[in-house]
Amino acid sequence: MTKSSRVISHPQQLDQLGVNLLPFSNSGNSVKLEIDNIPVHQREDWEKQINERVSECGCKWAGMGFLMGTTAYLFWIALGPVKLASLSLHHLGHGIFAAFAALIMGKVLGRLKGQRLLKITIAEIQQKWPATVQE
Q1: Could you report the per-residue pLDDT of 28-49, keeping only the tens digit for each?
Q2: CB 50 within 8 Å of CB 115
Q3: Measured between alpha carbons, how far is 51 from 17 in angstroms, rounded to an integer?
Q4: Domain residue ranges of the chain, discontinuous segments joined by +
Q5: How far apart are CA 43 and CA 34, in angstroms?
């Protein structure tokens, strides 16, 4: 399967980019910049930054959320009103729910953070975009 490229030739086109907040919906498209007035390494660096931000999946934050939810549940078992001897499937269900709820919150927060970082990256690139191309 080949990746298609989205070609950007004007700095205002960058405003149309965004991180998709729905799970499993990253399109796999890459962004290519058409700028003649800058060194190739600078253009490639910008493309790399943009593509990393656009394809942000929130996986790191989801993992942290899952770990935090699981840890909180284990602390609740160890220190809370339910003793290990009286632990039932009902209580285990609460723990699974807590872990997955934290995972989903982490995933959403990770994607929102990716969106914010993309906007910051776009603003920085638009400021540095060669003036002769902007006109």
Answers
A1: 678 888 887 888 898 899 889 9
A2: no
A3: 10
A4: 5-134
A5: 8
